[in-house]
Write a structure and sequence with these properties.
Elements lengths: L16 H8 L5 H19 L5 H5 L2 H16 L13 H18 L1
Helix pairs in contact: 1-2, 2-4, 4-5
Amino acid sequence: MADETNSPRAPSTGIEVSDMQDYLAIDGDENVLKSLIEYAEEDARGSIDSSIDIEVYRKLPIFNQAVRTLVDFNYYNRGALSGQQIAYPKSYQYMLNKIRWKVGKING
């Protein structure tokens, strides 16, 4: 059985605001979540390889989970980031490393 976490699926539009509302179990905050999703996608893409189109990343379930993880982290730590001991969750960094390997394999 293929590893679902790393295998590309049908084309995805990535994470939507409604996905994050369900994930975080919240209502509202559409504009905040939209901004955090855009930031998380660009942060992850820039940390891996910004020359690769975002649509390539969005096809990877692990990329979408990394986006969810960073949005979750930033949503619940808004205004408190200056006091944080870590800049990013370790799970986010772990996922980025896996994505680097996966994207290199796809484009290699």
